[in-house]
Specification:
This protein is α+β, with helices and mostly antiparallel strands and 120 residues long. It has helices at residues 3-25, 62-65, 71-87, 105-115, and strands at residues 34-39, 44-50, 55-61, 94-96. It has a single domain, classed as Nucleotidyltransferase, domain 5, CATH 3.30.420.100. It is built from four helices and four strands; from the N terminus they run H-E-E-E-H-H-E-H. Strands 3-2-1-4 form a four-stranded mixed beta sheet. A hairpin with a 4-residue loop joins strand 1 and strand 2. Helix 3 runs parallel beside helix 4 (105-115). It is globular. The termini are far apart.
Length: 120
C-alpha cells in the first residue's frame, strides 16, 4: 500500500472509533461535561464541553505550557486541567478519548486526571 492509502485507512478507522466512543458516552452537561482530548505529533490539548449549551467550560494544552506531546507532558497538562475543572466546580466528567486508542499519552492523561481528584 502507498503512504496515502495507509494514512486514509488510519484516519477512517479513527473516525469509526470516534463515532463509537461518542455514541456510548453520550452528551456532556453542565454537571458532567464531556472531556475530549486531542493529540498531534507536537502538542496535546483537552477541553471540557457542555454539549447541551455548546459551551467549552475549561481548556488546557501543552502548547500554552511550553510542553510536548509525551506522557510526562500529559501528566502536567492533566494536573493543570484538573485545577481548572475544580475552579469551575466540576468533579465528575465523561472522558472522550476522541477515537485514539487508550494507551500511552491518552492513558497517562486519564490516570493523571484521576490522581488529581477528577472522577471519570
Amino acid at each position: 500500500m502507498s503512504r496515502a492509502k495507509d494514512l486514509l485507512k488510519k484516519n477512517s478507522l479513527r473516525a469509526i472509533r470516534k463515532r463509537r466512543v461518542r455514541g456510548s458516552i453520550g452528551r456532556g452537561t453542565a454537571e458532567t461535561p464531556r472531556v475530549t482530548i486531542f493529540k498531534s505529533n507536537k502538542y496535546l490539548s483537552a477541553q471540557a464541553i457542555n454539549d447541551i449549551d455548546g459551551v467549552t467550560l475549561a481548556a488546557s494544552g501543552s502548547k500554552a505550557l511550553g510542553l510536548g506531546a509525551n506522557k510526562e507532558s500529559a501528566v502536567k497538562v492533566a494536573a493543570e486541567f484538573a485545577e481548572k475543572l475544580k475552579a469551575a466546580g466540576i468533579e465528575v466528567v465523561k472522558f472522550d478519548r476522541n477515537g485514539y486508542l487508550y494507551h500511552g499519552v491518552v492513558a497517562a492523561f486519564a490516570d493523571a486526571l484521576r490522581d488529581n481528584g477528577i472522577k471519570l
